[in-house]
Amino acid sequence: MGADTQKYGQVFNIQKFSVHDGPGIRTIVFLKGCPLRCKWCSNPESQQCHSELAYNVNKCIGAAECGRCIKACPQGAFKAGTAVNPVLDRQLCKQCFKCVKVCPAAAVSIFGNLMSINDVLQVVEADQAFYSRSGGGLTISGGEPLLQAEFTIRLLEAAKRRRINTAIETSGFTDWSVLEAAAKHLDTIIYDLKCLDSKLYKQWIEVPNEVIVSNFKKLCAAFPKLPILVRTPIIPGFNDSKEVVLGVANLLKGFTNVKYELLPYHRLGQPKYEYLGAEYLLGETKLDEDNFNQLQAVVKEALSKLAPQTKDEF
Ligand code: SF4
Ligand code: SF4
Question: Does residue 72 line the site of ligand 1, with CB under 6 A?
Fold first, then answer.
């Protein structure tokens, strides 16, 4: 691919000074669009490819006090109701974002903006000093960053040309040719393997996992020196069992460039479902911390019996 840094992508967040998603201090660029529908998704604003209207009623001044969104909306999607705050009818909304421009309290906002590769790199490069000291750099996350394949691959390529350390966080649900093209410009890849059971994938995530597992094996074989961090988020009722984590750990057998970690379930993203008018499907689900600690111990023991290079931490 060429060196077109004018290419645009849909970005919904850029998070600086992250120490969790790749080595050192990193800037995480979150892209919109994901083919998966994980019921526990902590970034629901990442799922759609286009910009979306968010409405946080907790910030709203009130229809009587303000009501500017009601006057500004050409579709009549905001209305004064019986409650203090205006009611938003999302069926009528055409995502013109006129209400965002007039809202004095930032109660309505936009998830997702078009940014060029140059725009993104300017933000990323501002922290170059921190990367050189810590071994950090750029991580592209999402959503699924390989859904905006051309943008992601060109961004990685441009970052490498500027000597920025690169990583992506992927579900692996993409064509092998896309994953392969991205991997050529990567210093680290973080790969989510949630379980090996395709039926469970379909039930909880709405996609099968055969391509994910097959891509993972191809990646390990084609890029034997690329550090790969496999992650399994532990979700109560879905994959919080020894069988699941041992299944994933066993798949890593023999791949010396692979490390493995479990991530605890959390519900930090729940308020964003309300801002989008969407339902959080996991209700009051809570992580059993004792079980999580046991699963971590099971993984540690299993990995100690596999190749000595396969570690349970980054
Ligand atoms: S985005 Fe446009 S159509 Fe939607 S509620 Fe706001 S003003 Fe109305
Ligand atoms: S413009 Fe903003 S603060 Fe004013 S009523 Fe609408 S949502 Fe509330």
Answer: yes
CATH tag for 53-111 (out of 3.40.50.300, 3.40.50.720, 3.30.70.20, 3.30.70.260): 3.30.70.20
The model carries a pTM of 0.92
Lowest mean pLDDT among 2-11, 135-144, 150-159, 214-223: 2-11
60 lines ligand 2 (CB under 6 A): yes
Q: Which fold has domain 8-49+112-305?
A: TIM Barrel (3.20.20)
Ligand 2 pocket: which of 56, 58, 59, 60 to mutate (most atoms within 8 A of CB): 60
Residues 6+ apart with CB under 8 A from 226: 183, 186, 187, 188, 189, 219, 257
